[in-house]
Amino acid sequence: MRSVATILEDRGLIHREHVERRTLLIGLTCTPDLCSPGDLLDLADDLIDTAPEVSFTVYEDSTDEWLGSFCRYVPGLGRFVASTDHDGDAVFTAREVLELDQMSPGDRRAALGVPWSEAIAAMPTDDAVEPQPYNTRWDPASGKITALGAGPDGADVTITPACVTEVDDDGNLADTTAADAALAGNGFLRANPWEALNVTCRTWGTDVYLAPEDTPGSTGPTPGIQS
Fold first, then answer.
1. Are 32 and 14 in contact (CB under 8 A)?
2. pLDDT band of 88, cuts 50, 70, 90
3. pLDDT tops 80 at residue 29
4. Which has the closest alpha carbon to 189: 215, 202, 208?
């Protein structure tokens, strides 16, 4: 949820001031202050790359000179993109209508975007609140990862096994796969990308969540080893 909220914040679609926990109001339409041609597809690309499990609709209103457009995305269905009129309804050319007439009912429904609209309409509309995040530190040279205050009674938690990796001359981590797998194996999910916490790139940080018990590869909400 944090990754989606961050994308929306960066694009001016939602605003958070003096708020410690992120909340997404699912079903609420977010409108940017300013947008440029191409923003629609760029936003869709960012959302799909960052949170491919999320369903959404992004759209641009039509103008006096141009049709609008929308992109719907649903996991398992992929994207549905169409031009729209002033009411936000998909519009089709005469040639496309003739092609639709020759299709089977199932193919026609797909070409009209019906499965996408039905899936979006069936989504829950409750608020989604970010779980409690825990600051986490990683020393790639030694491999030690510590989730601060994430254990019982606020104790720090040392993640096992140790995850040693290299940092190149440009300050890039060689590989985070083992670290992310170790987090998951100790009952955590990473909330955001690893970031260097000092100019030497010796210490890296992120936030983590306690993983739900049904998360694949997770041991559930009893994490790690206390240090």
1. no
2. confident
3. no
4. 208
- When pLDDT is cut at 50, 70 and 90, the band that residue 50 belongs to is confident
Q: What is the mean pLDDT of residues 58-65?
A: 81
Q: How many CB atoms lie within 10 A of CB 81?
A: 15
CA nearest to 55, candidates 29, 68, 73, 32: 73
Task: List b or e across 85-121, with b for residues whose CB sees 16 or more CB atoms inside 10 angstroms.
Answer: eeeeebeeeeeeeeeeeeeeeeeeeebbbebbbebbe
Which pLDDT score is estimated for 227? 31
Closest listed residue to residue 204, CA positions, set 157, 137, 133, 134: 137
Which positions ≥6 away from 46 have C-beta within 8 Å? 7
**DSSP state, 53?**
T
From residue 209, alpha-carbon distances to 130, 193, 218 in Å are 9, 13, 12
Q: Give CA–CA dist 205/153, Å, rounded.
A: 22
What sign for the dihedral angle of Cα 123, 128, 134, 135?
A: positive
pLDDT of residue 15: 65
* CB count in 10 Å sphere of residue 139: 15
Q: What is the pTM of this model?
A: 0.60
Count CA within 13 A, CB hemisphere, residue 10. Answer: 11
Q: Encoding tokens for residue 180?
A: 């992310």
Angle between helix 39-50 and helix 2-10 axes, rounded to 10 deg: 160
